[in-house]
Structure formats: structure tokens, C-alpha cells
Amino acid sequence: MTVLENKMARETQPGETVVAVRGLTKVFKDFWGRPKARAVDNVSFEVKRGEVFGLLGPNGSGKSTTVKMLLGLLFPTKGHIEMFGHSPRHVATKSRIGYLPEESYLYKYLDSDETLDFFGNLFDLPPDQRKQRAEQLLDMVGLSKARRRQVGEFSKGMQRRIGLAQALINDPDLVILDEPTAGMDPLGCREVKDLILALAARGKTIILSSHLLSDVEDVCDRVVIYYGGKVQAMGALNELLATPDQVRITTPILSKETLHKVMDVIRTDAAEDKIRIDTPTQNLENYFLNVVNKARAAEAETSGATSGNKVAAYLRGNAESEKQPQARVLDRLTRTESETATENRPEAPKVTITAAEDLQKKKLDQLTRMEEPTPPAPVPEGPVKEPNKEELAKANEKLSGLLGKK
User: Fold this and answer.
1) CB within 8 Å of 303: residues ≥ 6 apart
2) Are 20 and 51 a contacting pair, CB within 8 Å?
3) Cα dihedral: 180, 185, 191, 192 (round 10)
4) Rounded to an integer, what distance in angstroms lies between the CA atom of residue 307 and that of residue 188?
5) Kind and range of the H or E run holding 67
């Protein structure tokens, strides 16, 4: 199933408003406080739960500034922003957001495991949960073979992959992706788009900022197009891209007689120069992926990124995991070795003890049994009788005499 078919199969239900932006304006000023640039000018839009929302526009149109204000990294000059009904600076709200910046700001001397452990610790995840999620995320983004390599050695595409993994370590409800497929190969781009659709199908909200319009067209439900800091167009993609004065008819290969009959009927209502007959073609991405999939049987071991990986189990949710057999298989693969050993351990055979063995066992128990300590003498009850002073003096004299003789 292609990305477009996955998108069409997903039913977007109108849900709660996750992000609300009203009259958003950001003016940058110089050292003297004079207005220098109006990056965002009176922008308003809403993003619903489970929606993939695209931010489009040329360089310098205000997309990145809008994202920074959504994350609470910049104060708006004017306007109002709500994230899950709270301010972007609300601490509990931040824990529900995952962010992949345009540039991968990662510690280059940490490997993949250490990077995900670090970001998971920022969200106060338990160590066991951090380890489990790191295993699943690295497998999902195709870096399980490169988990011990330092991030500073990664190519740009591999850095985007580990950046995407860190953006999902906290299982966020809102994921903001800024150029997520930059520097990735076609396989990686396709997998990122499939992942976006899978997250949206689970009810997560995605805000996508990208210059690759084909990627946006494949996954986004609605888009907003910026220019000069203002919204120039906004709406559902199927409405914005539709050509209302044309109709396309797709059929299997027809015989010449049938084709002539169809054309004669069409010519009665349309001019000859408005009719076009051609053979449908697939795009280059689908052709490339088909060629690679056929050659994958001879794929060699690699220390770089791999493809064809499943979405992390904890991101799929319990309901979907129960429906998909491959999800259950992945869950078993990600179990710890101790759990697998316990589950597969055979029952211990029942041992029959003979009378002679029982007698030897009793003798051994008697020889190895520790002696019980003698309990202390009971303390007499009642008041203690004080010694007689005369008797005590006589005892002292006897003791002194004995010591003197020695």
C-alpha cells in the first residue's frame, strides 16, 4: 500500500483543538528598540487532534518563527497561542510535545543509546522504560546496527533518524517536525512519511514544516501557506489542489472499437482539443522503491541505517498491537532475555525418592543442622534482695587474703 493509499484509508475525525493560534504577530527589533522585521503578521489557524497540518512557504516567510513561538522559545509581540488549552510555557504541556528541529543539535560524543537515554531522563522516564523504548526506536529508525557509533560520525540523514527517535522518546501527543526528511535517502523519506501517517492514525497530532512539497502532499490533511509573514492560503489539500473544471476517467486497457465508441460519446460534449488520452505512470519514488525491494534479498550487512522497520510498539498502542500479528512478533523480539528464558523454560521432571535415599537425606540433615542456642535463664520476678553489708565485708577480707598469699 502506497503512502497516498494509506492517507486515503485513514479517516480523519473532527476532534478536540490541540493548537489554537489567533492574531499571532512577531516583530523583531534592533538594539534601539526600533522595528526591524515583521516575521509573522496576524496569523490565525487551528490544529485538531489526529490531524497532519503542514506549514509551507519560501525561506524567511515566518514558518520557523511560528514554530518557535508554539514551543515557547519566543514571545509573540501580539496575539494568543493555546496548546492543549494552556500557554506554550506551561511545564506539563511541554512534556506532551516532541520536537525535531531543522538542525540536529545533538551531543556528538554520545552514541545512539546514550543519546536516547539522556533525552528520556529529561522526561523522568524510569531506566527500564528508557532502555525498552530506545531499543524499539533504534530499530524503527534503522539505527540498531549503528547504536555504538558516536552521533558525531553520522551522516546528515542518519542524524535526522536519531533526531526523530529522540523526538518520540516521551510518546508525545503533539509532534512538531521541521524538515524531517532533509538529507535522507528515498527509503528513509518513505518510512518517515509512513510513520507520520501511523502516528496520526493513533490520534497524535503532527505539525510538519517542509520545503519538499511532494512529502507534504502525501501526508498532510490541511496546509497553511505563508508569504511575507502572512497567511496567503489555507485549507484541505484535496480542496486546494482540485481542478473543478476537469474530470479524469481511469479504465483498464480497452479495445480499439470500445475506445472509439467512448471517444465519440465524449466528443458530443467536449471539444477535441480539450480531450487527452495517455497511459498512467507511477512517480519516481514508487519506481525506485520497487527496484530496491526486488534487490533487498541480496542486501549485505551494514553499519549504517537500515530500512523496512516497524513502528515502535509503544507508539502503536495496545489496541493496534493486538490487531496486528507483526506487532505481537515485535513485542516478543523486544522482550528481555530473562523474560524469554522464563517463558520458554521447560517444566522440571518429577523425581521419585526411594526409601534408601530418604534415609540418607535424613542423616545428612541431622549432620548439617546447626545446634540451637541455649535459651538464657529466666530472670526471677519480684524485687531483688540487697546483700548484707557484714557478709559483703567478710567476703572482701577473704578475697584480699587470698590475693595476698599469691
Assistant:
1) 145, 146, 149
2) no
3) 0
4) 7
5) helix 63-70
Mean pLDDT is lowest, of 27-41, 143-157, 242-256, for 242-256
Amino acid 356: pLDDT: 53
% pLDDT > 90, the chain:
35
- The single-letter code of the amino acid at 182 is A
Q: What string of DSSP letters covers 311-323?
A: PPHHHH-HHHHHH
Q: Closest Cα to residue 167, out of 213, 199, 210, 132?
A: 199
Q: Summarize the chain as % helix, strand, coil (round to 5).
A: 45, 15, 40
Contacts of 253 (CB under 8 A, 6+ apart): none
Backbone angles phi, psi at 43, to 5 degrees: -95, 135
| DSSP classification of residue 56 | E
Contact yes or no for 70/207 (Cβ under 8 A): yes
C-alpha grid cell, residue 5: 493509499
* Element housing 93 (H / E): helix 91-94
**8 Å CB contact between 19 and 47:** yes
SS3 category, 338: helix
CB-based burial label for 51 (10 Å; 0-12, 13-18, 19+): buried
302 pLDDT more than 60: no
pLDDT of the residue at 6: 52
* pLDDT tier, 146 (very low <50, low <70, confident <90, very high otherwise): confident
User: Which amino acid does the sequence have at 255?
Assistant: S
What CA–CA distance (Å, rounded) separates 153 from 115? 13
* CB atoms closer than 10 angstroms to residue 289: 17
